[in-house]
Write a structure and sequence with these properties.
globular; binds flavin-adenine dinucleotide; 305 residues; Uridine Diphospho-n-acetylenolpyruvylglucosamine Reductase, domain 3; Uridine Diphospho-n-acetylenolpyruvylglucosamine Reductase, domain 1; alpha+beta; 3 domains; single chain; four-stranded mixed beta sheet; Uridine Diphospho-n-acetylenolpyruvylglucosamine Reductase, domain 2
Amino acid sequence: MADIDILENVPLAGYSTFRCGGPARYFAEPSTGDEVAVLFKWAEDKGIEVFVLGNGSNCLISDEGFDGLIIRIGKKMGELKSEELEDGRVRITCGAGLPFARFGNYCTELSLTGAEFACGIPGSCGGAVFMNAGAYGGETKDFITKVSFWDGEGIRTISGEECAFGYRTSLFEKLSSEGKIAVILGFEAVLSKGSKDEITALVDDLRARRTNSQPLDVPSAGSTFKRPEGHFAARLIEDAGLKGFALDDSGAQVSPKHAGFIVNNGGTARASDVIRLIDYVVEKVFENSGVRLEKEVRLVGNFGG
Ligand SMILES: Cc1cc2nc3c(=O)[nH]c(=O)nc-3n(C[C@H](O)[C@H](O)[C@H](O)COP(=O)(O)OP(=O)(O)OC[C@H]3O[C@@H](n4cnc5c(N)ncnc54)[C@H](O)[C@@H]3O)c2cc1C
């Protein structure tokens, strides 16, 4: 196509923090919303499916890969700017491809409070909005004032309230689960100034808590399961005796450090090994506690069934 490179047969394991999965039949990284629109039209003309990928930190990609077009929203859409408002607060404008941690660090540099939790989340800003990513009591929804997205016909900008944020969900997640198009292009956030020392101390504290409790040196997609109402997934998994459990020596394992994480030790597991372990954990936890865990991790491509 004219200006956008559409690559063929691109291995996707490097685009997922789980470090497994097969190739994309087609793969493109747009620079603008207009390019997103052109790519969707191209896929429609070819009669193939599209999947929008951010940083792949919440996705498990099938070993068969994805038999369509992966549109990756990455650094080409990584705009970041700030503007002080009359009331002293600061408006930050981000492209969806900007790393969410970079947004968090930028807020810290500007002594803005409320986004400290973002510094430890390895997704993109678009992925954070889609999932309403959160940690340690903070959520993406807390500071979002506007989101712009491509809805299949045009670029729309809606308010934070209209994003219908909930626990690890948003309007965009709902639209996507209904098979509708909603490609997040960027957001605006408004944050208040705070004490730089306090903000930096909180960021350091959250980072230390993460490093001490999570297997950050092993491939994973973070928490594999959503937090069930009234429970903690990791506790239920531990209670079922599955902390550190592996079905085989594929590399897929319930982390011995944090039972809520399924990890890919050594990067040797295939997606089929990971999903087999996920399904096993769901069944065992259900047998032990009566609680059916729901995946937070999103599946990309064909997993059968
Ligand atoms: C070590 C580790 C720690 C983590 N800790 C946390 C945590 O503390 N809290 C938390 O909430 N999450 C956590 N996560 C999970 C993950 O980082 C978040 O869910 C993050 O928001 C996903 O962003 P992403 O860009 O990687 O999205 P992806 O994994 O690429 O995609 C996730 C979903 O979002 C959709 N999507 C992504 N970008 C867009 C876009 N621009 N437009 C439309 N749809 C889009 C995709 O289609 C997919 O359905 C962790 C992951 C890891 C690996």
